[in-house]
Design brief:
By secondary structure, this protein is mainly α. The protein contains five helices and no strands. Helix 4 packs antiparallel against helix 5 (107-134). The relative contact order is 0.09.
Length: 135
């Protein structure tokens, strides 16, 4: 009996914590606007750069925005699908930035760099897929 009551108490505590963590529509809207403003500011900083450094900066800014939006969706409407989307966006952003950084290299070094970026992305996708099966 005590074990049963303990489980009910634990479940209700988890439910209350989930409810307390939920965002209102207005909070969501404000957070989304902040993400967009941060992206514009980050992208503006890239304008002062040149060549590949500028490209890398832009990829980083876009990746940061995409990850932040995915995390916001997870906070607003928590679900396994949104959690998976966060992981996917992080993997995608990491790959895009790594691939862009490879442009600073040439020849075999560049090919090896791109190959490593693709391998890292494949590993991240495999981990996401494995987590999906356990959910």
């Amino acid at each position: 009996m005590k074990k049963h009551l303990l489980m009910i108490a634990l479940a209700s505590t988890c439910f209350m914590a989930t409810q307390a963590g939920a965002m209102t529509k207005d909070e969501y809207k404000v957070a989304k606007e902040k993400i967009e403003a941060d992206y514009k500011a980050d992208k503006a900083q890239c304008d002062a750069m040149k060549d590949n450094a500028k490209d890398v900066c832009q990829k980083e800014a876009k990746g940061k925005e995409d990850v932040a939006k995915a995390e916001l969706e997870q906070q607003y409407k928590p679900s396994d699908a949104h959690a998976r989307k966060v992981a996917e966006e992080k993997a995608k952003a990491t790959y895009e930035v790594a691939k862009e950084k490879c442009d600073d290299q040439a020849g075999d070094a560049k090919a090896a760099c791109v190959k490593q970026a693709k391998a890292d992305e494949a590993q991240a996708k495999a981990e996401i897929k494995a987590k999906k099966k356990t959910m």
